[in-house]
């Protein structure tokens, strides 16, 4: 044994962790407690608890980390732990290990709650206990996994109980799920009242799309490569398509969907966020406010849609019975909770114009729908055709003359899900004496390139919130700008409701109503087939 | 992490020029193969594995083809026989395919047996076989004499030298040699050390324990560090961990409060298991932080913030394939390594 024990001569500074400096993968929050309101619900058991367990398994949670699940049903801590253990085993990304689970479960509590001061006392008590016994130091994250109608009462209740305050040196943050309102007016009201209780820097509006690796990679792709950004503008891009296709129907959420519809459910949040990321200007740095400022600038540049133009700039659809994945599925009107004469849209196609120097004259086509042939989310950048084909009218080329229009334009396809990756389509000569040109794809598959399992979007976002990094969360002005566009469309649709006899207008398992194809064909373009 | 690779085709070659021609021929065959799948060449780096015996050459070939799917490479495994009288360069050139669902990834493997005088001029053999414009790693497999690995020729050939400071008979001598090279080459040397990479989970866990502000203050009161490793003397991993902590904590040279312990190895081979436990203690020994290996897990027990907290992370001592894949994830030098190895070398004197 070698003993070199001598006194320490130069201790590290008090507020510095010298051991963390230079480490490449250490991102760990301060000790904190997360309170999941709606803790016995579906999101908690399928996503949130498994995501937190995966973080624990990866060693990314702080010592003393505590989860307080607050629900309506009366169950004990032990019953809750037993149920969550089974859910983590069933839905989790990482293998359940007894020793890791035991450590995680030590900090797992369940309490029943109500929205008022008294109803929140069990939560307050559990938080105090966590501070005293687990060292969570007053740091809290509240996850509102509750129905939209319960968000404001819960926020008010937290304020009444004094649970929204951040004592010196500690943090209180709240994660709010979409929908962030039903239109611009209700979104503003929701934000105003949330701001009565929490500062904007405490509010984390979650859109799980932004937690996906491929969405984050979009920024790296754009701003980490020198060759694409010079082409990323009206000079070279003919148009952009963003598709969020779902093969499932409303799956028992008919009542919710009757209130929401595809525009509110997908376009206002997911698609507008993707459009902002695709279209925004280059970043000067990767700070949260810089990223969000640039997204807002893009959203503000989207040309306002007058309600009278809503019909000409959009196509609505609703699915009828059909076949998806080899299974017969009912039409939307056959779903539980849906009115027999419902005219709620399950499909939207629309065009937006962006009035700025970069994108003027280059439209963005947006599309989303339920009961489409496959689940796919992708962004397609279609470049302009070659200005001239040299492969025509030459005697030396007797066969396979190729006019300009026969040369397919280049496409850059960013697949968000599934099979995250990027494909570049370009033209190549088919080997042989004749001059024949065909398109080939150069594929980058995220999974096969790195062979490393990506963290689930909720893992990323929960960790970011605990770390106080709001980059991948929507800020108040982003939400309101997106509503500005969508509310005008909703107003136009309300003024011109569809004839119930016109719906359904597409069969489940098809790519939407024929009007959607005609809509883009009028501009001399076609939808990319995911 | 690793995926099974299958040899698609092998050709034998004699002499370096024949090696290149054989590889071209293999590619042509693949392009014209009739399986209907596109043949895509994707190569992200050259890896030259320098070996001194058959066992090491076999090991290097297996490891590098196993990670070929994650790091598609041109692999050149050289087994030098400098003491042979007869001069010859014999090679087996093969394409190895790893299937990933719909996609195939190919690794080009050249295994060279170099006999006689040419074995003293390996750089001239390797240089023409490298794919230009991509990084080159030189992996010094096993425990050869480091003088050749750190020769000017070898250093100029590659962007990084990969070695395992834990593979050598004397960790102290090896660490000092590495530290000397760093000092001598002043920023012109990049090393990937397998032993250092194996300490990474420990370093992360220890660092995370001090991230809460309340715990940071406790760092000022640290008065002793103890590290135990398997074997009859402190291992390279143990010295590197100690060197890292001493350097990061700003402990004065020669005044480090460190106790290094060695735990006898069990009868059955423990493989790459090396670090056993680490503890930091305050002067009163009341508050401590301990990290230890348990069955399939790393456990950290801390009472530095007043509450007794235990965290357990799944941890399997990674095999060589996993460690190499992880090293290759990071093409750049680890900025912490030079100061850690320099300090470790000083501690191990």
Q: Can you put this structure into words, describing what you see?
A:
- The complex is a heterodimer of chains A (530) and B (349).
- Chain A has 530 residues and is α/β, with parallel strands linked by helices.
- Chain A has two domains: 155 residues, Rossmann fold (3-Layer(aba) Sandwich), CATH 3.40.50.720; 311 residues, Dihydrodipicolinate Reductase, domain 2.
- Chain A contains 15 helices and 19 strands.
- Chain A is globular, with a radius of gyration of 26 Å.
- The N terminus of chain A is likely disordered.
- In chain B, helix 6 crosses helix 12 and helix 10 packs across helix 12.
- Chain B folds into two domains: 159 residues, Rossmann fold, CATH 3.40.50; 119 residues, Dihydrodipicolinate Reductase, domain 2 (2-Layer Sandwich).
- The mean pLDDT of chain B is 83.
- Chain B contains twelve helices and 14 strands.
- Chains A and B meet through strand 1, helix 3 and helix 12 of A and helix 8, helix 9, strand 9, helix 10 and strand 10 of B.
- Strand 1 of chain A pairs antiparallel with strand 10 of chain B.
Summarize the SSE layout with pairings.
The complex is a heterodimer of chains A (530) and B (349).
Chain A: E1 2-3, E2 33-37, H1 42-57, E3 66-71, H2 77-91, H3 98-106, E4 108-112, H4 121-134, E5 140-144, H5 148-160, E6 172-177, H6 184-197, E7 203-206, H7 213-223, E8 237-245, H8 254-259, H9 261-279, H10 288-301, H11 310-313, E9 314-317, E10 319-320, E11 322-324, E12 327-329, E13 347-352, E14 364-369, E15 376-383, E16 411-417, E17 421-430, E18 436-445, H12 446-450, H13 457-467, H14 476-495, E19 506-507, H15 514-521
Helix pairs in contact in A: 1-2, 1-13, 5-6, 6-14, 9-10, 9-14, 10-14
Chain B: E1 5-14, H1 16-31, E2 45-51, H2 54-66, E3 73-81, E4 88-100, E5 103-115, H3 122-126, E6 136-140, H4 146-149, H5 152-157, E7 160-163, H6 171-185, E8 191-193, H7 194-198, H8 200-209, H9 213-219, E9 222-230, H10 236-249, E10 258-263, E11 275-282, E12 288-294, E13 297-302, E14 309-314, H11 320-329, H12 336-347
Parallel strand pairs in B: 2-3, 2-6, 3-5, 6-7, 7-8, 9-10
Antiparallel strand pairs in B: 1-4, 4-5, 9-11, 11-12, 12-13, 13-14
